[in-house]
Specification:
With 102 residues, the chain is mostly helical. The chain is built from three helices and no strands. The protein is elongated, with a radius of gyration of 19 Å.
Length: 102
């Protein structure tokens, strides 16, 4: 069983990760497009399309896995703190957690 401070820190980390995952998704998409474009430029266009599809599949898998991991971490922290998930917004939860850490 985690302490309240550990759970509050875990909640804040999961809320921060939920915000950062969108920026990382954009970066991964940009990298996939650039690499697929380079493959299409230096080889046949069919290989570029194939690499784009493979990158899209890998990015989708990674995004879903990380989203599920972040959601599970948030739910575990809320459960350890004894809070309900749907009661407060993310900002209110962050404020409560920072109050516990102070």
């Amino acid at each position: 069983m985690a302490t309240k401070k550990e759970s509050a820190k875990r909640l804040i980390d999961s809320l921060d990760s939920a915000v950062r995952i969108n920026n990382r998704l954009r970066l991964a998409i940009l990298q996939g497009v650039v690499i697929s474009g380079a493959v299409a430029w230096f080889t046949r266009w069919q290989f570029g399309v194939a690499s784009a599809l493979v990158f899209a599949l890998l990015i989708q898998f990674a995004f879903e896995r990380m989203s599920n991991s972040i959601a599970a971490s948030k739910l575990q922290a809320l459960n350890d703190l004894g809070w309900q998930e749907d009661v407060d917004s993310d900002e209110a939860l962050r404020a409560k957690a920072e109050k516990i850490l102070s």
